[in-house]
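During the first year of the project, the team set up a workflow for recording each protein of interest as an amino acid sequence followed immediately by a discrete structure-token representation. This format lets reviewers and collaborators read both layers of information side by side without switching files. As required by the reporting guidelines, we include two representative entries from the current panel. The first entry is reproduced here exactly as it appears in our internal archive.
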Amino acid sequence: MLRALMSDFRQGLGDLNEKVGQRLSALDRDRVIRRIWDGDHTVWSPDPTEITRPNRLGWLDVAADMLAQAPALQAFAEEVAAEGIETLVLMGMGGSSLNAEVIDSILPRRPGFPALRYILDTTSPDEIAAVEREIDLTKALFIVASKSGTTVETMSQYAYFWEKLPQGRNYVAITDAGTPLAALAQERGFRRLFLNRDDIGGRYAGLSYFGLTPAALAGAEVEQLLRRAQPMIDSCRQERAEGNPGAVLGALLGEAALAGRDKLTLVLPEALARLGDWIEQVIAESTGKGGKGIIPVAGEALGAAEVYGEDRLFVAYGDAPGLDALEVAGHPVVRLPLIDPYDLGGEFFRWEFAVAVAGHVLAINPFDQPDVQAAKEAAERSLSGGATTSETSGDPAATLAQVRPGDYIVIQAYIARDEAVRSRLAALRLRLRDRFRVATTVGFGPRYLHSTGQLHKGGPDSAVVFQIVGDDAVDLPIPGRPLTFGALRRAQAQGDFEALRARGRRAVRTTLEALEAAGN
């Protein structure tokens, strides 16, 4: 089957076919696959920092560890359900929540378990107020998830709800050992504290406690998910690259980017839509640094072949109308087989391994995020200065006039995340794509800061950024801090905008209405 998969890849690669074949041979010659499994940091960098010191390769074998923990997770989920908990509220940013969100959206849930109704990956006071308004707090279980135990968004959310419901049995923590959150969970008598392995970065944490605990609590059979992941993990151990599905995909991603086809355009059926969000994170945050990177394009509906430039690589799960026409027009198209829901764990691993290989091809370290801190520091400066603003700056039409072939348009939305806004943004990005023949991405702030934000600042200088700002309908205080959620969110937007401009990015702050008018 794996040979057939490689053959399928090559059928749709066009001019990339020879380059990918040569790269697979080079992976064999340099023993790259064996060296990845051996934890050899020189696969990516002569410097072990953020690879093996501290170790960031725990994702390679965490599934086996978690399989041993699956019965205990299942028992805990049944205990929570039996006590009448109706709603799960997951508080976490980036990989601390996105992995669980994907699993919950794809796996079937057994009846009788509470629903994972809310994923708070935001500082929007409107969204936080909606959670408080819509649920019975006493029948909710709040899952506080943060690898560092200090994530400002997550700990602010926790402080807000703890003030409303200071009952430890309504809280669960997922974090690394020795963090402030771990200490807090013990001090305040949280119902359970799950200590994750500290050798796994957030975006690689899908098969760890971060991904599995919320999913198990919502009724997913995580033991089956882990068992079904094992064949893919075993396949990715194959040292001959052509027979290794993760290595084949990684070689393709890397060679396509080197050839100028760095806009990885994901074509997914609706049932797998959330998987695209996770692939977006693991690709963007892992590869977007040092002026290099692969730009993942998720959620952009397929168009006619003529609206695409020569910078696209299409990767689809299954088939979709329009893919054949793209191939005929000369665009590389790869079709991965549609998956059963419980094959999701294997797909997590395929893409993680692929990113590791692509990092080798691009000569970057896929396990660090060197440009994330700049936006945090700028946000802190805004807060310490006492002035945060959602004022616009500049003319979106003038910024659109700077778009060149090979660029991509980034929409950073610090506005309501409701269906009406999502619909308007989806229509807007297609108009911009068709008009300028460039890729488009959309991310809500501050969620995207823990996903694509690294790429925007550290990746290629091909991002043209439109930060959409607006006022919140309500505002809420953050207990223990002299500021509100609205002020924090404005500072995060302002800080990221300043970090983008400091790097010379083409960026403007505007309103949705103004960008819609400019894009018509």
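The second entry, processed by the same pipeline in the following quarter, appears below.
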Amino acid sequence: MTNVFDKHKDKLVGVWTLISAEMYDSEEPDRKLLDKPFGDDPQGKVVISASGYLSGTLVKPEGLEPLASSDPTDAELLRIGRSLTTYGGFMTLLEQDDGSFLWHTKVEIGCNPNWIGKPQTRVARFREENGVAYMTLNPVKWYTLKDGRQARGEFKWRKIGS
């Protein structure tokens, strides 16, 4: 399949802010919400350059709690580290028959060393409402929640800059 990033870069390039991050029990229309791992007011940004480089960062609410001092304790560093998800790398984009895209980011740097050199793959869908661009990203892999249940992720983003 052919990388179509250049063909669709007008949709992609820019700064995106996370508006929801949810975990569901399936991909079916009657799916059930299982978790909101980043809370009701998720914090995250994705920046995509014109060359196709992506940098993404998501933070759970506990990672944003103020520190007691400018010299964090080991416990505070652990809290922050466990609340942070971040990676970067060049992406490729493939068109799918249903109008969505298969988006692969080959991780070059990330908070999880096991990701480096491997792809993070998402199904991406784009829409526009009242002149505002939105994208929905669905990771292709299943997540395992803390309670052991399997879940499908859905991350919704709004474009806030070019």
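For the second entry, the following points were noted during internal review. DSSP finds two helices and ten strands in the chain. The mean pLDDT is 96. Both points are flagged for discussion at the upcoming steering committee meeting.
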